[in-house]
Design a protein that fits this description.
Number of strands: 10
Oligomer: single chain
Shape: globular
Helix content: 55-70%
CATH class of the largest domain: Mainly Alpha
Amino acid sequence: MQSAAAFETEASKIQDINSVSQFYDSLKHNTTEPLSTLMLQIITIILVARIIGYVFKKIGQPSVIGEIVAGIVLGPTILGRYAPEAFAALFPVTSLANLKFLSQIGLILFMFVIGMEIDFKVLRTKANEALVISHASIIIPFSLGVSFAYFIYKQYSPDHVNFISFALFIGISMSVTAFPVLARIVQERQISKTKLGTIALTCAAIDDITAWCGLAAVIAIVKAGSFVSSLYTLLAALLYVLFMLKIVQPFLRQLGEKYSSKEGLTKPVVAVFFFTLITSAYLSEMIGIHALFGAFMAGVIMPENINFRNVFIEKVEDVSHVLLLPLFFVYTGLRTQIGLLDEANLWYDCAMIIGIGVTGKFIGSAFAARYVGQTWKESLTIGALMNTRGLMELIVLNIGFDLGVIDQRIFAMMVIMALFTTFMTGPSLDIIEFIFKDKTKITEKINEDIASEKYSVLISYGNPAKGKQMLRLAYWLTKNIQSKISTIHISPSGELNKYNLVEYEKDSINPVRREAQKLSVDLTTHFKPALDIDKEIVDFRNSAKYDLLLIGLGNSVFKGSLLGNILGLTSKILNPKTVLQTIKERKIILDDTLFDEHTNFIIKNSVMPVGIFIDKKFNEAKNIIIPVYTIGDSFLSIYIQKFFSTVSHSITIYDATQLFVQYPELKHNFTNQLQNAKIISKANDEIKLFKSFDLCILNIDSWKECVKQKEEWLTVSPSILILKS
């Protein structure tokens, strides 16, 4: 019997082992399925692209540069070289076709948006000077590129490619400007509404149209194989363009005028526009001038109604930019093998390509701008902007690589050139600004507004509702003194396209302006897109020398974490009770973690006083309580005396820890500054006490003490103003 039982036990163990083995085999099989592989690739790509994109944003570069670098990191240059097994598992050769086609869908949507972002009204009215600059920025680098191709043709061209095809692609790849990146930089530099900004945007738009038409012609010549055949292709392309402009565009214009609102863009209407996009891309691909030209053309002929384009861009842009474009960057990175440049002469040629690219675009555009009457500062600025290549360059390079016109070495060199020229745009603009340093009229106006006899308050807000409440607080703080109140709303520039910029500015500022009218407040407003919002707030505030900066408490004490910033996680404003509960649960007591990263950055880097406002349906400040916890609270008396010097305010000083008994001079300081203030040394019921006030004003050190020790009354306290001297 015992041997039978032992046999059964052994058999059961073997069965368990077999079950585990079967489960493991099933799991391994499932993870290697094409769909599972693609999903894992997308997860990895988005995560790495967001991380590196976030890092590049923090150093003042467009996030697109970081995303391109992410592609190279995940490609054979980094991951394939230092972790070949992980690279082979993540990007098996059989999976690359799926990644390619999905990234192509992203590019089609992207080019569709680019076509829509070109404003032909501006081109018609501002094209005189821009036309000369734009054509110079194409002809000069194109000519230099074709000339350089003559010297490198034998060494770098594939065997089956003739010189004309090779030279045309080198020339056209030198001529491209990244309109989207240029538009974002113009927004961030706050020059989009100036003559300089308008010329730069117009130049880039004309450049895009010319370059893509030229690229379509080059593709036709390369694919056709013979000159006569290419003429037929170009004729078919011309008929296609006329069909889109003369037949399809008028129909879409009528449709756009009728259904321009969000409510009007129903699924059947949206389907018509997407059908137009896909059909246009298909026709251009069938003709032989590439689907991306068709997508660009579809965007160009979309209704010019601003509301329509804004709504439709918003529908397409998030999917294209966040989900699909990073796939293209990584697919490009998989093709970019920088390790092939393993000889000195190859790096010399790479440096030559960079030099020719910068000379043709930067110098060529700058001299053309100077020729048409721009100042040297404006000319060099236009040159630096037009030298930005970014994603558009990568698209051209991938087309050339797919057609077999350029080999892997030239492809890698050109990718490096695209990265270098885009990366140098920001520093170049900073250097130009430094060389031609000049105080702008805006800065002069700000400094005039905040003359020394006025107490100036700057309100920085993200949400207009928060801005209205902080304006109400500023109104009560400065009600009895001569003052100047200003607001600034800084928005992440990467989230705005050129069509929704003006509308977004109005939506952000107008509610606050209306509140100012209700309160009879003379308000100055400022709006600016920026890459680094926190730094921009501090720089703006410090340069203008305000007396007080008012900000709201961040969305969450954990919102400023690296992961939160990378993934763009947001949540509703946490009230003090929730914040305290979170802190209590996570055992976080360190000072820096009591505020989010946004608030901490401003506190540490602002050279002037900062007020952090925790809003609890604030309405007025007639009854104010000032809890005193530390010796450092003495500076509060100066603020309170300045703000609330009349009998219209009731001020109560709460000696929460019997500090006045230990330090009589502290009590004297408060009573001397605030002669009408009431002092309470002890409260039997703190919760009841705090419920009766409109506003609680605290020193930042006292706030930290309250978070640690006074959770009870903080949960029921009125709106709180935390001051950092």
